[in-house]
Amino acid sequence: RHPGWPARLGPLRVGAGVLAVRPVRLRDAGEWSRIRLRDREHLEQWEPTGIGPWPDRNAFWSWPSQWGALRSLARRGQCLPFTVTVDGRFAGQITVGNVIRASLRSAWIGYWVASDFVGGGVATAAVALVTDHSFGQAGLHRLEATVRPENAPSLRVLTKAGYRREGLFERYLDVAGGWRDHYCYAITQEETGHGLVPRLIAAGRAEYA
Ligand code: ACO
Asked: What is the ipTM of this complex?
């Protein structure tokens, strides 16, 4: 077992409903696939370029191998792969990946939210929960989020959650079929005080459910 895994975080009440975060499950396949096939336009432009067509990569039968890969990384302490739920329904994913320990104790964080739940504070609250957990039980010190400058909603999520912009990574990531510039946002444990969740609640953006 690695520190901070497995874990269940929340619940928190946000505009969209009651949000919770839990490990990805094999039986997420149905909702994961249904939503991602429906939400291609909402998601594909922001996600790493995949091998093969979107409908194949997001078919019901492609979840077991993705889930299995995430689970084995999580068991090795290299990843914290969470499903986000709203009122108990699958609403997206949030993942802490490329976990490096020793004297770096750093990782990246990434997320997506189903189109029918966007604009309700889901991603911001999920980032706050997972950041606090990463710096608490999981023992990390720094999280980094890279976002395309065109992705206004995601930039807003990171700003609301308390991340800082550190710079621009040019031609950084292969996204939607090309090498895309990304802003690097980051946060370290010292900056979080008593936690991002209490701060979000004090700002009136979430409540304990
Ligand atoms: N311009 C500016 N702000 C916008 C726009 C826009 N076009 N559209 C929405 N926003 C704002 C919203 O108003 C809200 O801010 P507010 O609370 O100040 O009003 C904010 O963006 C969104 O905040 P949340 O409601 O917490 O986020 P949400 O649950 O809607 O999820 C997300 C945002 C994850 C970016 C979602 O839109 C999504 O899944 N997009 C596609 C995938 C994606 O881009 N993932 C992020 C990749 S980058 C990374 O993972 C680090």
From this structure: 0.99
Q: What are the pLDDT digits (tens) for 7-42?
A: 999 999 999 999 999 999 999 999 999 999 999 999
Spell out the residues 6+ positions from residue 52 whose beta carbon is closer than 8 angstroms to its own: none
Burial zone of 67 (CB within 10 Å; 0-12 exposed, 13-18 middle, 19+ buried): buried
Cα 209 to averaged position of ligand 1 atoms, centre (Å): 22
Q: Which residue among 118, 124, 130 has the greatest number of ligand 1 atoms within 8 angstroms of its CB, and so is best to mutate? A: 118
Shortest-distance Cα residue to atom 36 of ligand 1: 113
- Domains in the chain (CATH in brackets) are 9-208 (3.40.630.30)
Q: Which atom of ligand 1 lies at the shortest distance from residue 157's CA? A: 23
